[in-house]
Design brief:
This protein is α+β, with helices and mostly antiparallel strands. 48% of the residues lie in helices and 23% in strands. The strands form 2 sheets. A 4-stranded antiparallel beta sheet has the order 3-4-6-5. α4 runs antiparallel to α5. The radius of gyration is 16 Å and the shape is globular.
């Protein structure tokens, strides 16, 4: 399978959100199981570019997490992930439903979470659908307008 760097990095983001991955070896193994082939050097570069960091869990084990910062690089990364995975959106009252490319909902939801939309109370992602609870009907319309500008 020929994959792009963006697809691989989206998968890395999805994996570290779902699994407690603490080493590059574990990450490389998980990527291989998901059908991605990458060398340790490539994974190391991805970790640096994505600004992943390790944090200690309550049991003392370390795991990778996406480092949240207001830097332009990360904002562009999340916007890129959102654009690449986004297919459509609709709303039902104050629930925003975002349809994504198959397998991309977790990565797109993580991007949405990191885009700091205070109107979004929380998101749930499946395989190709994200449901976001939004504070009000007015906020839902405002969020949809902002998201439309990203994908246009």
């Amino acid at each position: 399978m020929s994959e792009s760097k963006t697809q691989r990095q989206n998968k890395i983001l999805e994996l570290i959100l779902k699994e407690e991955i603490g080493t590059q070896e574990e990450l490389t193994d998980q990527l291989r199981r998901a059908g991605f082939s990458a060398t340790q050097a490539t994974i190391s570069r991805d970790i640096r570019e994505m600004k992943l960091t390790k944090v200690a869990m309550s049991d003392g084990n370390l795991r990778y997490v996406a480092y949240r910062e207001s830097g332009q690089d990360l904002t562009e990364k999340y916007t890129s992930i959102f654009r690449e995975g986004f297919l459509s959106m609709d709303s039902a009252e104050n629930i925003l439903v975002v349809k994504t490319v198959a397998g991309m909902a977790m990565a797109v939801a993580a991007a949405l979470d990191n885009m700091d939309y205070p109107e979004i109370v929380g998101s749930i992602a499946g395989d190709d659908t994200i449901m976001c609870a939004v504070r009000s009907l007015e906020d839902t319309a405002a969020v949809m307008n902002r998201l439309r500008k990203i994908v246009e």
